[in-house]
């Protein structure tokens, strides 16, 4: 028969085990409605938008022109290599469903194996973007489609030649007729269909989203502590805020080195005050879309968090600096964080909760045969 001392010792072990340990008051506070969470901390003058789930895509005005037929056509065209000059490159070449709808490269490779100077962002949740491209030079997805389609380093497509080519491919005129009411193939319809398909590729149900919607156990204690850091000491909400986890503004973080790749950024659009500034990336699905930053500078999350932790850096001017382009200035929102290794681990755990079941497509759609359409 067990002694009283043994029974007492066993009871103490069970009581002190993790399942019986005292709960963390901070974690418990976050398992309450968001109105009861600790206040978010942002710099003076920044009116941060509260974190929130993404709305349903079909609740947005831009969804009004989306139909199943246009999505079907857009999906075909998204994988259509024959839009390119070489018949080898499609939108999906840089936005691969197997790679989080990005391409896993530091910078993308396009026409004639030319290397670009930008990292391909995922198209997931692109319906929520106000402007497109890292520098925001496109007002909408339709503009982005045409810009990438005709870019000599990307698809190098010729608009007139492409429309003629698709018109002659058996199977496309009926798809255009179903989507637009008649079989005419036009540049505008191609861009519209591809953009519509892109707007249908969304991820709205990551553990983080379920937590915001009231599933208080969707995040672990570690992830909840990371969420608190995200909203406070780690300073993330100065830029990553609202439903999209992006202020959709443009900032310079030290990633742009003068005369290396695209170092001008937003300067080309808006002028001297935004040299080297690039759009705040939305964060959902980020664990599937490394490397990070506009030029793929950070190879993984650990490196990325380390760079934020040290406060990045202010680049020095070259001796032979171009006098016509101002020196990029590190964003005042970036400061050293002094996070411990345990805090960095908690923050990383939270960031991993932002990836759910990404939209997947296997195999890709079968493209129409390259046969002459029946003209009779």
Question: What is this structure, in a nutshell?
Answer:
With 376 residues, the chain is mainly alpha-helical.
The helix content, as a percent range, equals: 25-40%
As for the number of domains, it is 2
Write down the secondary-structure element order: HHHHHHHHHHEHEHH
> Under CATH, the topology of the largest domain is which?
Cytochrome Bc1 Complex, Chain D, domain 2
**Termini gap:** 96 Å
Radius of gyration: 25 Å
Total count of helical runs of at least 4 residues:
13
Low-confidence stretches: 1-21
Named CATH architecture of the largest domain: Orthogonal Bundle
CATH class of the largest domain: Mainly Alpha
Average pLDDT value? 91
For the secondary structure, the number of strands is 2
Strand content: under 5%
* CATH homologous superfamily label of the largest domain: Cytochrome c-like domain
